[in-house]
């Protein structure tokens, strides 16, 4: 079953001679419950694709369905609710709120919806990500890897349809990056999560179940299961 279905997706920025075709006729399907990585050269449209799947960008043309929802048919308010409830975001720079504890940061998406906290699920999530003893700490007391783990937990706490991670290891050293990517992969297995990751690190990309390559800046997509990018 596909969690994401994209047909002839186009996303342009600017107009006239300054128009940039970030995505230009891209078609792609992403299977539910899989760990998929997107790779490609700088400017190939990786982040644009991720942000369009996450409802942060509206497509210029084409069809994009996420968890059965046609994003083009949603109003701005509906898109906001869709992102909050059904998409988990993990960013390179963590984006934790410094005034909140780790526990408060993780639960923040639930607080926005005034939703009940499943303490059993929260405890399992924090434990799996190694945050059990850090929940009352503030972000500045955590290492970079611990901050990213808190960001991952925050992305998972609503049990979203899909988690989108944009260069989640880009601010980390090699060893910590490998650990974080391993934890991301573990969340797919333990929590039956669908995970889509952008990374420039081809070695880390090999940890994924599927690799999608954006080529020639915009249009060519190559999808391969359990393959080595670039081969």
Structure, explained:
The protein is an alpha/beta fold and 231 residues long. The chain has one domain (2-225): P-loop containing nucleotide triphosphate hydrolases (Rossmann fold). The protein is built from seven helices and ten strands. Strand 4 and strand 5 form a beta hairpin. Helix 3 (102-112) packs parallel to helix 5 and helix 5 runs parallel beside helix 6 (174-191). The longest helix has 18 residues, at 174-191. The protein is globular and about 55 Å long. It starts with a strand and ends in a 6-residue tail after the last strand.
CATH-scheme architecture? 3-Layer(aba) Sandwich
> How many DSSP H or I helices?
7
Rg, Cα atoms, Å: 17 Å
Please write the CATH class name. Alpha Beta
β-strand amount: 25-35%
Q: How do the helices and strands follow one another from N- to C-terminus?
A: EEEHEEHEHHHEHEHEE
- General shape: globular
Give me the side-by-side strand order of the main sheet: 6-7-8-3-9-10
Fourth-level CATH superfamily: P-loop containing nucleotide triphosphate hydrolases
Mean pLDDT: 90
Structural class: alpha/beta
Number of domains: 1
Helix content: 25-40%
